[in-house]
Each structure stands twice: as structure tokens, then as C-alpha cells.
Amino acid sequence: MKVLFDHQKFTTQRYGGISRYFANIIDQIRVAKDFDCEVGLLYSQNHYLKPNFNTLDKYLARPLNTERLARKLYDINEAYCKYLVGRNDFDIFHPTYYDTYFLRNLKKPLVTTIHDMTYEKLPEYFWAQDPLTRDKRLHTERADAIIAISETTKSDLIKYHDVDESKISVIYHGIDLEAPLMVDPVADLPEHYLLYVGDRSGYKNFYLFIDAFKILSEKHPDLNVILTGGGKLGIADLELLHRLKLEKKVKHVQVNDEQLNYLYQNALLFVYPSLHEGFGLPILEAFKASCPILLSKTPCFKEIAVDAVEYFEPHSLEDLYQKIETFIVDSSKRNGLIAKGKVRLQDFPLDHSIQKTLGLYRSL
19 with 81, same domain? Predict the structure, then answer.
């Protein structure tokens, strides 16, 4: 059985949860006796597909930092995917995101993965002209099988789209439980810091978190915040920190996976304040790195983390800073949740996730 994966997230992400999800599936297919696969890429800088730069990278890495040339690369990779779809030399097509370029010509079964329904649930936080919600709907209408990464995502999908429930399989993300935790030190870290991982856009609730930190920093002057992922701080982010006089206490660092593990490992607390998610892979990362976690009280987070974390009311500034305060002053609380996190992590083996996905392919 041959599975074709397309280019989308491998073109747009160097690091990222979605591209890592697909790379894990591809890695397993390449050692499975009854599977073969092809990835519709002429060139990519994705870390998970290509951990080592080749000669071509040395010439292309710098010019591809420009938006115009990066867009050109996207178009070239997409044209190649259209060619592969038209050639029809595969058994199943599993695109890595929601572009619909292939719908007219696809003749084989389609599997699509729904990572979350945040755009549908919280449309007020997104650009009205963004085609994502429409494209996602078209995927689900054409799909022969749909992977939802949590029961929450499945429930949201049924709520917002007229989709046949029998086509939906819930397959949780997984993490390699057997692999040792690989760490790479990050220089110039403060001794005491709260960790924030990922995007800082509206529904991620970043501004509530910073408002809470402002209150805490006045009581705990040695406390800092480390941000990672989500790109460099934007103008609005910098202005917020300037207004609150927090420029010296909030630092953004861009890190690889090994350095991210180091950040988790040394953080006082990982705070994930998002208003909605489809799964929350950083939860598993923090569990593995022995980092205590504070989450917003949302259905998905409660499904994934259960009682191995602390929760706060997602719109309550007072509840957020008070919950963080308890972690600062109570080391036994931190240690207790770290231990619970290790236990909960055992429910998410990567092998189980991959085998369920391959089983879904076989069923088609």
C-alpha cells in the first residue's frame, strides 16, 4: 500500500507539531513491510524530514528567508504535488493541511486529519477572509476517513459540520516513551522563570498571562518569563511589555527540540493559557521533561491532562495569578504534579498512535 503525503506543512514549517506528526507517520511507514510512501516535495528545510542540511540548503537557506522566494517555493512544491496526484501512482492520499488544490483530480481515497476546530469555535479571533474554515469543510466533505486528534475535536467537528460520524476515528498524538530526553542547554536563562510555548495570537490568551505576570513580578522581583515559538515578538507584543515595564523580565528565545526540552526541564512552571486547542502536544512534552503545568480549564485540556496538572478559569486574571502564586511558594505541589504527569504520559505511546493510523489506512 502506497500513501502519498503532500508538501504543505513541510514547506511552511521548519519546526512544528503538525509537520512532526506527519514525519512520525512517514518514519514508521518506511520500516513497515506492507507500506510504501511518497512525499510531494522538491525542497524543504523541515527539521523532522531532513535533520541535516545538504549542499542545496547552503545556497537556498538565506534567500528563502525572504517572503517572496518562500512563496515561490510553496508554489513549486504544490505544482509537484498536483503532478503526483494526477499521475495517480498511490493508494491513499493524506495531505498535511487544508489547501484544496487536489480536489478536482483526486481519484483515490482521501484521509484528512483535523487538528482542532478553533477557527469555527472562536471566529472573532481570526481574519474574516481567511479560507481555512472553508477549505477544512471541503476536506471533511470529500474525505473517506477523518482523523480527529481528540474526543473534543471529534465533538466539535460534528457540532460545526454535517459530517458522517462513522468516518471519524479519534487517534491521540503520541510521544516516544522509550527514547531518552535529549537536552541542549540554552544560554543566559534566568534562575526562576515561567515558560510560555507557541503562538501569541488572540485565542492563545497571551495578554491575560502577561497581565498576571505583571502582578506577580511586583511581589517576586526575581521571577521572569521565557517565551519560545510563535516567531519573534511583534510590535504589539513589544508595546505591551513596554507599557507594563516588563521588557527586561520577558525574553523570547528561538530553540530547537533539544533546547525546548531544556527549557521545560528548568522552568518553575509551564503555563498554557489558551482558550481552545485540539490536543495540546506541549502537555506531553512538559510531562516527559518533568515540568509542572498550569492549564486553562477547557474541555480538551481536561481530556488530555486529567488530574496531572492544575487548572485556572480561562478568563479570570485573579484565578490565573493566584494559581501561579501557589506554584511559586509550594514546591510539594510542583513535585506532586510532576509525578502525576509521568503516570499520565504512559497513556500516550507514539507506537500506539502510529499503529492506529496505519490500521486506518489498511481499512481503506
Answer: yes
